[in-house]
Amino acid sequence: MHSNMFTVLSVLTLLGTIGVVGLALVATVWGLTHGNRLLTRRGLHAAAGMTAVYIAVLAVVSLVSREQVLPPGSEKYFCELDCHLAYSVEHVEPLRTSPQGGQTTWAVRLRTRFDENTISPTRGREAPLSPNPRRLALIDSSGRQYPPAEGLEPVLSQLGVTSTPLTRELRPGESYTTTLVFVLPEGAVPTRLALQEDIFVDRLIIGHERSLFHKPVLFGLPGAG
């Protein structure tokens, strides 16, 4: 199990910083409208100082981070604040090689699991959860990344492969598998899979995998190559 996603503390830190900066800006505006130069100056200094400190901490935490590759079969947890979803790569295989384009189609089967042991006391035990947006990329041995291919569902249908969308909601204890299709140049060998949350605010959360300059946590692929 591995969890590198944001924590409640990180979110509260961001919200607290926004709140303090907002109050400082309100004081600045009040000082301007009432001719209070001292209050205006102090408000601006407080807003700028808090913003600078937050950015500095965000950058330092990100810069000292290191890329991690999880062993095949490991789970990566995504925090949804009051519960967690666990993801793991179950299988990887080449489906076919295009004789014209010299490309190979790869299928990656990903399992999504709602860990019922991570539910907050404030959340209903049977309340469904809709996963946050995800971004994915298959990475080859040279480090080049390839996004999931679109329009290749017929390939899976011909092979009798069923796939559940990553956006489908789950209830505590439920799980499903999603088969993703990637097209790689001939000879390119996939070695890792990047799976991350795709929400802009994550870029501003200290310690989040997608915060500025932070290194990723990747899946090592079982049976690839």
Task: Describe it.
The protein has 225 residues and is of the alpha+beta class. It folds into two domains: 2-63; 68-220, Immunoglobulin-like (Sandwich). The protein is 26% helix and 31% strand. The chain has three helices and ten strands. A five-stranded mixed beta sheet has the order 1-3-4-5-8. A hairpin with a 4-residue loop joins strand 4 (84-98) and strand 5 (103-115). Helix 1 (8-33) packs antiparallel against helix 2 (37-63). It is elongated, with a radius of gyration of 22 Å.
- By DSSP, the count of extended strands is 10
The value of Rg in angstroms is 22 Å
Let me know the largest β-sheet.
5 strands, mixed
Structural class designation = alpha+beta
| Shape descriptor | elongated
- Order of helix and strand elements from N to C terminus: EHHEEEEEEHEEE
Unreliable segments (pLDDT under 50, ≥5 consecutive)?
Answer: none
> What kind of assembly state do the chains in view correspond to?
single chain
Q: Major sheet: order of its strands?
A: 1-3-4-5-8
Q: Helix count, per DSSP?
A: 3
CATH topology of the largest domain, anyone? Immunoglobulin-like
Helix content: 25-40%
What is the number of domains? 2
Our estimate of the beta-strand percent is: 25-35%
- What is the CATH top level name of the largest domain? Mainly Beta
Distance between the termini: 24 Å
What would you say the CATH architecture of the largest domain is? Sandwich
